[in-house]
Design a protein that fits this description.
The protein is mainly alpha-helical. The chain is 66% helix and 0% strand. The longest helix has 52 residues, at 90-141. The chain is flat, with a radius of gyration of 32 Å. The protein starts with 19 loop residues before the first helix and ends in a 7-residue tail after the last helix.
């Protein structure tokens, strides 16, 4: 009796083949934090039962795409290397670029103002600490008037 398979990722008798990186990841997962190893093992079992031929990364991208469609995000979580892409309209692209540069400048100004305010508060704290310390030192040098 022989088993023939037509799927490229399947081994003998239709069983899913393990890639070396998957074996290493599962072993390291069990060694480092066992739920990771279990998750990889269950993933491979589910992959074999559902006959899903993609890897975990492709599965995650597919499910994220489905979530974006249901949530109405339409690709808001694109990678930074892809964004912003050309819209096909040069005038809009120029306006968007100018607006993004303006917003980046505003952000820089806000960070500078925040740092200046933090420095100001730090100066106030130091002045108050100095006053408290000087008051302590002055009271320490005076004899206690209640003792008689």
């Amino acid at each position: 009796m022989s088993c023939h398979t037509h799927a490229e990722h399947r081994g003998p008798c239709g069983r899913m083949r393990w890639k070396p990186i998957e074996v290493v990841a599962m072993i390291l997962g069990f060694v480092w934090f066992f739920p990771i190893g279990l998750a990889i093992l269950f993933w491979k079992i589910w992959q074999a039962k559902s006959q899903y031929s993609g890897d975990f990364g492709a599965f995650a991208q597919e499910k994220w795409g489905e979530f974006e469609q249901r949530a109405g995000l339409r690709g808001m979580a694109r990678g930074f290397s892809e964004w912003p892409r050309s819209s096909g309209n040069a005038a809009f692209d120029d306006w968007r670029k100018a607006e993004l540069e303006r917003l980046a400048e505003e952000r820089r100004k806000i960070f500078e103002a925040e740092k200046a305010f933090d420095d100001y508060l730090d100066g106030l704290r130091r002045a108050k600490d100095r006053e408290d310390f000087e008051r302590f030192m002055a009271s320490r040098g005076k004899p206690d008037q209640n003792q008689g």
